[in-house]
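FW: tagging you since you asked about this chain on Friday. Here's the raw sequence from the shared folder, copied in full. Didn't touch anything.
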Amino acid sequence: MAVGDSNFDSRLRREAMAWLAVRTNDGAEWLTRQDIEDFHFEGEPRRLQATQTGIWKPKDLSAALSIQTVYRAPGKDRPYDDRVGDDGLLRYAWRGDDPNHPDNRALRSAMQQELPLIWFFGVGMAPAVFQPVFPVFLLWEEPEKKQFVIDPNVGKGLIGRESPIEEHLRRYLMVETKRRLHQPVFRSTVLRAYRSRCSVCALAHRELLDAAHIIPDAAEEGIASVVNGIALCKIHHAAFDALILGIRPDFIVEVREDILKEVDGPMLKHGIQGRHGERLMELPRNRREHPRKDLLEQAYERFRTA
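HL: got it, structure written out here
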């Protein structure tokens, strides 16, 4: 098969993304690097992800197949600055400073051919764990900043480099980018840190767990980071958001006084009231990933004044 066979290329990308959709339960689950190595195409094992760099171009393709962003614990910088611009669009940094580095050329080729890419976004280490986000597209290049503009299938066809982005479109791009990238990455990062257990009751059924924001993501302080998250089952997440249950900065659970006086069934008695005064049952093993005390303090103050 010749390098650049477009039919082969499109089949490989389509089947890789279909396989990832199944393995991640449509993006709800994360995968280890070893999990990702299980992919086979036309009866042969196929690598989907770079191991030493951020950009992966198989030898028999004319353009990059995937990119990755490695995980760094809170307080540690990533080796590359992948960020959201003021226009609501994401950026992906070049590899190094040379525009003609093979990896940068591979991304440029994917951009020019408008090919879909897979973004493996790191959500944990030891072992390396990734949240696959796909398809993503490269919209244009900003060589003066040594980066590409990357789109999680939100703005493709809606915007151009030279066209001003109106405010309503910018808001739409930011909301959709958050839904398609930040939310699944945040969920996987938090649930992985809490070993897929509810922090309040230790329930271990991942399908019944949420990654709850301590400070809502709509607020200025509501950062999309594990330090602003806590793994909660759906009952305790709802109780936390409804200010029925609060968490002190010393990780002690409190239940609102009027709820403590209620008489109801076993769920209220054992699931809510019984947690009053108890310490959280699960916290991340890595202290860097513990909830930030100042964010817990803000949320607890809101609970106290409810």
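FW: The chain has a mean pLDDT of 89.
HL: agreed, and Residues 37 and 47 are 6 Å apart (CA to CA).
FW: great, closing this out.
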